[in-house]
Prior knowledge:
Layout: H1 2-19, H2 24-38, H3 47-61, H4 66-75, H5 80-89, H6 101-110, E1 124-131, H7 137-151, E2 157-165, H8 168-176, E3 178-180, E4 195-197, E5 202-205, H9 207-210, E6 213-217, E7 231-235, H10 245-257, E8 259-266, E9 281-284, E10 287-289
Parallel strand pairs: 1-2, 1-7, 2-6, 7-8
Antiparallel strand pairs: 3-5, 4-5, 8-10, 9-10
Amino acid sequence: MTMTLENSKKTMNSLIENIVSLSDGEFRLIADLVYKRFGINLTEKKKALVKGRLHTLLKTKGFTSFRDYFEYVTNDKSGKALLSLIDRISTNHSYFFRESDHFDTLINVMIPQFLNKSTSQEKQELRIWSAGCATGEETYTLAMVLYNYFLQLDYRVDIGILGTDISVSALNNAITGVYKKNQLKNIPLMFRKFFKKKTEEEFIVDERIKKLILFKRLNLIQENYPFKGKFHVIFCRNVMIYFDRKTKIELINRFYRYLHKGGYLVIGHSESLGREAGGFQYIQPTIYRK
């Protein structure tokens, strides 16, 4: 009897697995949809990733195939199903002071060029955009570094930092500003003062830092962005690796439009603009200037 039950469970698990298997055709439908709406290029190598990240959702919602799920997403007029899809597909990996040399260059090279030293008592404006901010670690790192820098100078600066991402769940985490103890391990001691203990294992970002930041959902491949002004620095690190060449060039051109003259674009160490740099001047690896 025991063997019969065990065999039944194995058979049932096998059936479930077969029901939600992802065919090449179904993968192509989902990949094409993600590319068309978000610019993310899902190659065949990502098939297992797509299946793994959507598998539980299909079982929970009662879909018997990925095609049924695809039809559900495309027919959902509210757009919520599409947002849920990209939430699961997009990668939201980040950590504090990632590629920390960029923040040193920000303080020592970039920011001084935008300060009018002859009017140190007149309030000046500084705008920075963290594009593809994920769960907020990069954005909060920028805010902490700038806050600490201007605290030591005799300048009145209106700091405004925008953090955008395609993922709603990632942005909700960023807005909350609560991080696990082990997530703070890369933060230098001098910046630990900007975190307050919430529980034994959780810390929350100080309000002095939070008030410098605005988090918004944004699809980077849309033609125009809802910004009133331009930015002095744009951080878009480890995002363009998910785009093909055409989408990458279009994005770089949009970044160019939304930067002040002399403004900087910072990309990830695994990325390069190469011939796509357009009107940008190469400064050093990963850093370009308009």
